Amino acid sequence: MFSIDPMSRTPVYEQIIEQLQHFILTGIMNSGDKMPSVRNLSVSLRINPNTIQKAYTELDRQGLTYSVPGKGVFISESAVDILQTKERSKLVELTKLIAALKLAGISKDEVIAQIDSIYDR
Predict the structure, then answer these.
(1) Residue 121 pLDDT greater than 90, yes or no
(2) What are phi and psi of 104, to 5 degrees?
(3) What is the largest CA-CA distance in the chain?
(4) Number of H helices, E strands in the chain
(5) Which of 63, 100, 114, 119 has a Cα at 20 to 30 A from 33?
(6) pLDDT digit string (tens) for 63-120?
(7) What span, in angstroms and rounded, lies between the C-alpha atoms of 51 and 21?
(8) Rounded percentage of the chain residues whose pLDDT exceeds 90
(9) How buried is residue 24: exposed, middle or buried, by Cβ count under 10 Å (0-12/13-18/19+)?
(10) Do 4 and 15 form a contact (C-beta atoms < 8 A)?
(11) What pTM does this model have?
């Protein structure tokens, strides 16, 4: 399920975090689902367990996962809401980008066509 790009400039632990966020938003993983153990994931990805633990610690800090001692790490009930709120905050950046595109002479129709093509995928 998880895969790592060793040539990426993105640190490995961040790649794991980004992939889990994608899995949650696309419904591949749902609230209550158990995460792979640190040991199993480190073996399957051939990565130091400390790197996996760093990703899991950050996911817990963000509220996307929670730990049950002796049972494992699970996706939290509020994970989707947390991620949707985080993504909605990017609308401010999008507004600035659209304003810059308008200033550069990019038409509203071109912008809308791009948005439509993304939503139609």
Answers:
(1) no
(2) -80, 0
(3) 59
(4) 6, 2
(5) 119
(6) 999 999 999 999 999 999 999 999 999 999 999 999 999 999 999 999 999 999 999 9
(7) 17
(8) 98
(9) buried
(10) yes
(11) 0.81
The kind and range of the H/E element at 21 are helix 12-26
DSSP structural state of residue 110:
H
* Of 6, 8, 7, 76, residue with least CA distance to 48: 6
Which SS3 state, helix, strand or coil, does residue 34 take?
strand
Q: Which of 69, 67, 68 is nearest to 59 (CA)?
A: 67
- Burial class of residue 29 (count of CB atoms within 10 Å of its CB; 0-12, 13-18, 19+): buried
What are the DSSP calls for 35-68, one per residue? Answer: PPPHHHHHHHHT--HHHHHHHHHHHHHTTSEEEE
Please give the structure tokens belonging to residue 42: 């480190």
Radius of gyration, CA atoms only, the chain: 18
Q: What backbone phi and psi angles, to 5 degrees, belong to 107?
A: -75, 160
Residues present in the chain in total = 121
